[in-house]
Amino acid sequence: MLLTLLVLLFIASIIAGLLGSLTGLGGGVVLTPILVLFLGVPIPYAVGASLISTIATSASSGSRYLKSGLANMRIAIALELATTSGAITGSFLEYVVEKEHLFNLLDIIFGIVLIFSVIPNFMRMKSEVPVYVNPDGISSKLKFNGKYFDEALKKEIEYHGVRYPFGLLGMYIAGLVSGLLGIGSGALKVLAMDLGMNLPFKISTATSSFMIGVTAATSSGVYWALGIVNPIIVGVTIPGVFLGSNLGSRYLNKLMSRRLRQLFTLVLVILGIQLILRGFGIFG
Amino acid sequence: MDLNDVIGYALRIGVIISVILIIIGLAFLSGNRDFSELVSPTSRVNTSVINPTKVPISAFSGNGLDLILLGLMVLIATPVIRVLIGIIQFAKERNILYTIITIIVFFNLMLAIFILPLFIH
């Protein structure tokens, strides 16, 4: 029984790491429901485990994405300005929300927002690389440019991120939601870069994977103090997500962007449904 | 070595050290009679009952639980060190704009990890 639990936990974390590194979502989306529904872990411990393991996904896939040129260091750090500020605000707000018992309402609202956010994804489903837009003032000053060799298309792609203020706003909300709801918020990061900043989808997901560890580390202090980190559960998941994300980050560049976008859309819908269910108190 | 290489290695080394500490910790714990109690999903052993300053010392004396916790601390420190290396590198390149941005990110991280938890009881 004990061994079965540990083995299942380990397998679930490999899958979480794999999907987390490919979609830029971190992996909590996969890990939380498996932990809660199949392994009987209470929601707070599941949330704690997925938050901490996101750091492992981010660190192991992030180093590979930097090397392959898929994660853009300058864009990441310029946007982390907003995610960390958002995460701090979110942690503070958590108190107010906890007092007023608004968590369920927030879960439901955010779940609905996520499900609707797949619509622009459908419109761009077939696009492999975005149409180049001339850099605007701030983004050229911040040098949001780069190029990478797309192994699926077999050609070099040059890109330039635009609309930095839009990106900042999206990232601030992503950090806020992460601190408030305890979800990795990679979904909003990818959307802000993909829709707002006109970056290629692979650059968006890889840069989100790279960034997400810093956001998770920001929230981890509060989570640690709240006591929702169970060392054994987290301990078993971390080697698993490490293996999974190593595997996932090896294949990102080989896949077509539209395939990644389909995967991302699917996981987003699952996350949305999951949050709505949590909001109605159905699961857990 | 350029910025990306240094940061890539730092992330990789950090996460590998963390995984090794956690695996050793789990191996030590598995021989423990209370292991099944600790593994239980509803176990009451969590980070709110742990004094972080005592973890490193008792980890090195071979306490399995503290080895795992030390692994988690190394993991949380990894992105922080990544940001710190970023500050140094941008400063070396005399890229003032990015040095300032990275310092603010670092400040936010420190505030969130060390100051915010003090307000939680």
From TrEMBL, chain A:
Protein's membrane topology: Multi-pass membrane protein
What coarse category fits the chief subcellular location reported for this protein?
membrane
Instruction: Give UniProt keywords alphabetically.
Output: Cell membrane, Membrane, Transmembrane, Transmembrane helix, Transport
Cited InterPro entries: TM_pro_TauE-like (IPR002781), TSUP (IPR052017)
A Pfam match? TauE
- Give the UniProt subcellular location, in the record's own words: Cell membrane
Superkingdom of the organism of origin: Archaea
Cellular component GO terms, alphabetically?
Answer: plasma membrane
Please state which protein family the record places this protein in.
Answer: Belongs to the 4-toluene sulfonate uptake permease (TSUP) (TC 2.A.102) family.
What this protein is called in its record is Probable membrane transporter protein
Query: Organism source for this protein?
Result: Sulfurisphaera javensis
TrEMBL record, chain B:
Domain of life per record? Archaea
| Record's protein name | DUF1634 domain-containing protein
Entry keyword set: Membrane, Transmembrane, Transmembrane helix
Pfam families cross-referenced by the UniProt entry: DUF1634
Species name: Sulfurisphaera javensis
The UniProt transmembrane annotation reads 6-29, 67-90, 96-120
Concerning InterPro entries, the annotation shows: DUF1634
Q: Does the keyword Transmembrane apply?
A: yes
